[in-house]
Each structure stands twice: as C-alpha cells, then as structure tokens.
Amino acid sequence: MNILVTGGAGFIGSNFIFHMIKKYPDYRIVCIDSLTYAGNLATLEPLLKRRNFRFVRASITDKAEVDKLFEEEKPDIAVNFAAESHVDRSIENPSVFLETNILGTQILMDACRKYGIKRYHQVSTDEVYGDLPLDRPDLFFTEETSIHTSSPYSASKAGADLLAGAYYRTYGLPVTISRCSNNYGPYQFPEKLIPLMIVNALADKPLPVYGKGENVRDWLYVEDHCIAIDLIIHGGRIGEIYNIGGHNEMKNIDIVKIICEELKKPESLIAYVADRKGHDMRYAVDPAKIHRELGWLPETKFEDGIRRTIRWYLENKSWWKEIVSGEYRNRYERLSKEMKIN
Ligand code: NAD
Ligand code: TDX
Fold first, then answer.
1. CA distance 216 to 252
2. The pTM is what?
3. Does residue 80 have its Cβ closer than 6 Å to ligand 1?
4. What pLDDT score was predicted for residue 330?
5. For the chain, which terminal residue's Cβ has fewer other Cβ atoms within 10 angstroms, N or C?
C-alpha cells in the first residue's frame, strides 16, 4: 500500500505518519509538504533515511509538482491534511487560506482522478458547522448539521468539503471526509491554545485569554484522531462524512488554569485580551456514526492526555525553542544538503 500524506510536517499529519509507520511497517508513506511557517522538518527528521518513506517539499497548489508526484508514486490512498489551519491568521489574511484549502484540494483531487486512486480522504473540521449556544448542552454537531461557517478558515474548509462531495457525485471519485474537533498533543505549533499557553507559562510570559475565556471546545488527543482516520481510510464507506470528537467539552479558561497548575505557575499570568472577531462559542461533536460503523471510541482521557502533552513539551524544548527563535526555517536547506531528500 502506498499512502500519500499531504501536510505531514505539521501537527496532525506528522502524528498520523508516526502512527501509520508503527502500525503498518510495510506501507510506503510519501509526504508532500510545502513547509510553510507551520511545517517543521525536524519532526520528520528521524524518518528521512527510511527506505519506505519519502518527503517531497512542494505545494499542493502546484499542479505540475503534484502531477509529477502522482506519476512517480501512483498512490493507492491520499490523505489531505495540508491546510492553513489557524483561525486568527485567516482573519488577518484570508487569501492563502482559499488558495491552499480550496484550490489545493481541487488540484489534489484532479490528480487523483487523472492517475486513479482507491480513496481520497479529506481531513476536515467541526468548525464547518459553526457554533452551538452555551445554554443548550443537549445540542451536538451530527453529520446532518448544516454548514454554517464563521471564519475565513472554516469557510475555506467548508468549500473544500463541498468540492470533495461534488467530485464524488460528479466524477465518482472515491472520497471520504472526516470532521474532527480540537486536537492537542505533541508537535502542535505553539500558536494554538494549548501549546501557546505551555510555552508562555514556561517563560513566565502572559497567557492571553480571548474575551472571558468561556468559549467551549471539545478536545481530542491527536493519537485518537489518527486512529479514527486510519479506520476510515481502511473501512469507511465511500461518499460518507464521519464526525470525530471526544465528548470532552471544556472552557478555555479551565484549560489554561489546568496548565498553570500542572506547571506550578501562578494564575496571575493569565491576561484577558480582546476577543477574537466572530469567535465561535461552543463546539461539541456527536461521534455516534464512526462508533457505530467503525467501532471508534476515544482512548485517551483528557487528564492523561494533557499531562502527556505537557511532559512532551518539557522533554522536547529544543523542538519548540527552534520555532520560537525561527531557526527551524533553515532545517530543510541543511537537511537537503546532508541527506538526499525529494
Ligand atoms: P498545521 O498547521 O499544524 O499543519 C499544516 C501543514 O500543512 C504544515 O506542515 C504546512 O507546512 C502544510 N501546508 C500548508 N500549506 C500547504 C500547501 N499549500 N502545500 C503543502 N503543504 C502545505 O495543521 P494541523 O493542526 O496539523 O491540521 C491538519 C489538518 O487537520 C488541517 O486540514 C486542519 O484543517 C485539520 N484539523 C485540525 C484540527 C486541529 O485541532 N488542529 C482539528 C480538526 C481538523
Ligand atoms: O491565544 C489564544 N487565546 C485564546 O483564548 C489562542 C491562540 C486561542 N484562544 C481561544 C480561541 C478558541 O476559543 O482558545 C480556543 C482554541 O483556539 P485555537 O487553538 O486557535 O483553536 P480553534 O480556533 O478552536 O481551532 C482549532 O480547532 C479546529 C484548530 O486551530 C483548527 O485548525 C481546527 O479546525
């Protein structure tokens, strides 16, 4: 089996590659990633010399590069993680979100059609459903919930989902889509809530909480997301959407307080700052369908996952310190000289 993973130098994509290599040592994994600010080749460095792993630095928006890669590799399955993924950045500059998240998806799916693929899997997000009110804890996102996006990021992800659905219906492309809630775990870029708070707390810097910190997210340990995608690409029904979520709703402020407690840092570091524009109030996913059809259930409890995550950031300071200093941006040039990649 030859699996093409896009965006594998980012947070979830890299965790997925590690999961797949461990579970299916005979599979070939090919990663295409353009190494934007969010991609860090240091994460994949231990894999670069493996016989059945290949890293290619290219953008999914570059049709010639994507076609060349499909021509060479003829992947059986493509899993598309590559995206601009940070809501705040999408509010500042939407263009690149539309280019990568929508046009990049189109270029990938065109290559899948041209060269043939057994399955194209689109990694999407619960944010396409918009948000839920805080005073209706009985409401959850199901696969039937209508699309109702808030940010340029979520609108671009919804656009990609609709396009994937259209490619299934119009061209018969074997598509599946997963919509997952907020992930946390190792290798998450320290711009997202949990790693940002860990890194700032360790440096005794302010912990910026948007608004009152009452917004609720449904947190899932990244490995559980990877297991769910593994199940979908091997057994999910073609043309279907699967929601993935941990039934683990928490207020932002409570997460930040847990991080302070675990790191023995004072809550006086917490700084309430201006709210995010269009800030979604609550996300809560109903994962009944993937449980029923594929037997998936989250395995990691939040209290274990958050401790494991904090420990990982404590034990891997060089990984995030290179990001904070900007040094990680030179790694591709150095590694491509040292090792033959591409
Ligand atoms: P990330 O920002 O950590 O990683 C994205 C990766 O994609 C980076 O390595 C980046 O270099 C690469 N990339 C960006 N533009 C590219 C392009 N044009 N061509 C090739 N590579 C490109 O993101 P993440 O948190 O790992 O998210 C991965 C996917 O999962 C995204 O599609 C995101 O929408 C989705 N998702 C994320 C979460 C979450 O909580 N992080 C939850 C649900 C869904
Ligand atoms: O500094 C901060 N302070 C703060 O209060 C940051 C970075 C975030 N927040 C709040 C905003 C959100 O309510 O914390 C919550 C989580 O924020 P993010 O980590 O930016 O995640 P979110 O906006 O919920 O989106 C994430 O989950 C869904 C991912 O970034 C998306 O890629 C994914 O689709």
1. 6
2. 0.98
3. no
4. 86
5. C
